[in-house]
Automatic annotation (TrEMBL):
Gene3D superfamilies for the chain: Flavinator of succinate dehydrogenase
Main subcellular location of this protein, as a coarse class: cytoplasm
GO BP field: succinate metabolic process
Signal peptide interval: none
Annotated keywords: Chaperone, Cytoplasm
Family: Belongs to the SdhE FAD assembly factor family.
GO cellular component: a single term: cytoplasm
Protein name from the UniProt record: FAD assembly factor SdhE
Organism per entry: Caballeronia grimmiae
Highest taxon above the source species: Bacteria
Length: 97
């Protein structure tokens, strides 16, 4: 398990399985590359997500498929309101899976 996830989960573990399931369903994307990354991510980290992780993922999933793919493949970096510590941390984890 990633240390960043361990550090965050201690105080704010996302224990609602329905909320996690909805997030996983929402992560199903039109681009196969995004789907593969999210599938690996959820396989490894779904049960370790914190509330902050879920909020960051929710913000990422509001992006278009192409914007999201560019972030996941490190073609771009988060900017503006998206460049929060939680979003940046989750992107780093997504890039590592």
């Amino acid at each position: 398990m990633d240390n960043a996830m361990v550090d965050k989960q201690d105080s704010a573990h996302q224990s609602d399985p329905l909320r996690r399931a909805r997030l996983r369903w929402r992560a199903r994307r039109g681009l196969l590359e995004n789907d593969l990354i999210f599938e690996r991510f959820f396989s490894r980290y779904e049960h370790d997500l914190s509330d902050a992780d879920v909020a960051a993922l929710t913000r990422l999933l509001e992006l278009s498929d192409n914007e999201l793919m560019d972030l996941l493949l490190a073609r771009t970096e988060p900017e503006g309101e998206l460049a929060t510590p939680d979003v940046i941390r989750v992107i780093q984890i997504l890039r590592s899976v």
